[in-house]
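Pair request: fold both.
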Amino acid sequence: MTIAVSPQALPALVLNADYRPLSYYPLSLWSWQDAIKAVFLDRVNIIAEYDQAVSSPSFSMRLPSVVCLKTYIKPSRHPAFTRFNVFLRDRFQCQYCGSRDDLTFDHVIPRCRGGETTWENVVAACSPCNLRKGSRLPKQAGMIPHQLPFQPTVQDLHNNGRQFPPNYLHESWLDYLYWDSELEP
């Protein structure tokens, strides 16, 4: 079957050479164009395919749905300090009230009191809690984080990411993804 395919449609799940996804959250996906390019550059093996194909006058190919890198990429041991990764570490929940809405950064020890913007001093906080705490220390505000801030490992973030499966999971991907069983689609 040959059809016109948009760049956003039919992404390929990208596995490391050990058949594990490069990342769970965000899920390691390539556009179909990047997957085909990697096939032609001999950087990946095709593990599974979609029914759809792309064609040129001299060539036709079914689109890869799962590809595996031929060379193992050693995962970073220390994830980058980013807003997204802080929220992922904290499971997208305010560390004071548990809300999942309107999340912001909160410096546990406020910057005006010498607190730094580091893994060990920043937690996810909803905007109302962040405003209520203000520039006070947690004990002064009566607001102790549910989980003390810490520098996560990549594995910590992968484990947390498994709790938030994406909205779309192609059936060919399921053998390579390990989500909490209660959350499987």
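--- second member of the pair ---
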Amino acid sequence: MPKQESIISIQDLSVGFGDKIINKNLNLDVYRGEILGVVGASGTGKSVLLRTIIGLIPKRAGTIKVFDQDFAALNDNQRRSIECRWGILFQQGALFSSLTVKQNIQLPMREHLNMSEHLMDDLAILKIEMVGLKPDAAGKFPSELSGGMIKRAALARALALDPEIVFLDEPTSGLDPISAGEFDQLIATLQKTLGLTVFMVTHDLDSLRNVCDRIAALGDGKVLETGTMEKMMQSDHPWLKAYFHDARADTRVNTRVPV
């Protein structure tokens, strides 16, 4: 079996706030073309890890390599070049409320690309349709969208620059089961169609089962286990046994809030 290519490689990562250490000597590889689900109890540093990888939170120690480059060692221009190769969907979508969907999607284009308004308009509509929204969503403001539409619009913005990596922070939180299932399927379809690598922070067992190629479980400041859902189910680690085998696991996937 050929060796998998690590598109993100994290070694001995430590992150903290004040006296509190969130991640300590954490090691993790994300392989090109996979959907990696990152799971863990509240406060285990799932979102902190994502934000540290993309440079929003400073690390205290360790190395983060993206595309085989040490992100911390790059200059500003080199960092911007790397950032153009990833897209991010934050938990609540993080759309700018004063901008339309089209304008939100065009923000990365305006920042990083040099193209005409006409071409940006065409590309924005393409991204809108790509995530399953109707073209008339382009002129709507976030306040006019449902929760599911906000997630899709935010995903369209994450795809604006045709990234190789997409970071998703709790992408199905706040969605009803049907909408969440449809969003999972959208992620899987886009991953296959576009050849994306997906780093997905989630607590959603349905997402872990249905779309993730591999799972990384966080706890005690580090990665407790990595592998397929089958491997997680077979683990003897107390937290993994409780999370994946507890009687409430069957209901945990249905705790999404209707929109």
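Observation on the second member. Confidence is low (pLDDT under 50) at residues 247-259.
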